[in-house]
Specification:
The complex is a heterodimer of chains A (148) and B (216). Chain A has seven helices and no strands. In chain A, helix 1 packs antiparallel against helix 3 and helix 1 packs across helix 6. Chain B has 216 residues and is mostly helical. Chain B folds into two domains: 123 residues, no CATH class; 74 residues. In chain B, helix 2 packs across helix 4 and helix 8 runs antiparallel to helix 10. Classes of the chains: A mainly alpha (148), B mainly alpha (216).
Amino acid sequence: MRYAVWLVRLIYAGWMIPAGLNHFYQLYPQPLGNEPISIAVFTALLDSGLFTLVKAVELLAGVMLLVGWRVPLALIMVLPVSFTVWYWDTELQGWWTTSAVYGWAVGGCNTVLLLAYWDCYRDFFTRHAVPRLPFASASEAPAREAQA
Amino acid sequence: MTRLFDILRVVLGVIMVVTALDWFMPSLMPFMRDTTFTDPMAVRMLDVLTASGLLAVGKFIQLAGGALLVLNRAAPFALAAMFPANICGAYIGVLLEGGAVLALLALALLALNGLLMLAYLPYYHGVLQSGRTGGGLADGESAEEGAYYNSLFANPFSGAPPKAYVAGFAVWAAAMWFFWYVVPFANSTTGMVTLIYPGVILAVGLVNALRKGKSA
């Protein structure tokens, strides 16, 4: 199992780092889309500056995966990006296009890796989580209640 | 203090549910005032997000997340799910539209989301941890050297046995093959160039492991 996870992780990092870097230093022409709506979304993201934020997250998460630093955080941080990539490549570009293959690959890699690190996300789903004062000492930490 | 955070949780949840419901079913909320955007970039951004369906996805996340907060079910998950949507909202409100009231509201919502995440910080421990394993072990990994990613691909001095490096090289070669044969266009080259880094770490680690074996 671990070999499969490592393979997916290397492929995902090998994909995301150049894709993120490409926005800041052009390595290859950025695909703009083939459908009016996908082009409109892409150009709006680019012109508004939001695309820079998206690509910075993609690059940072890719590096974190490759060098093995806070991997569960990187996977959840990049999830909105990979979801948007999947949505853009499938729903906006067309479900039966070459783009869709890329979309499924990116979304699939992120999903597989999230599932592989599922233990790290278990506490997110605590049914009745108890809040406490941020940065309070450990003795003030409330007991966790029933897990979902 | 817990009570104050419970109140803030319900307040954020109600705001999220009401604003999302107002977007999906405006007739349900006749008392809600519609926000009018004037900046051309903000208007264009919202138009394409609406036309593409991405705004509906964001609003659904706000609706579901808000409901979870109100019901106090999986609150840490709800807050983490809504955070990226609220960042985008703040980006549009503050940097694109820039109106004082809208910007203030967007920042207040984001701050409330962030503050509540801080209040639930212990529940994010599994995601925020670091250490030699790189923040956690994946399925099938164990804490012994050579049995988790970082001990082969990130740390050449981990002390993993030479046998583990053979498996590591096989995985690395499979990833290189994938980029070489399966991935088309420039993505193929850039992917392989990126994978040189873990390849070098593996090679240095293997040399170290062999030298250690010889001297032992």
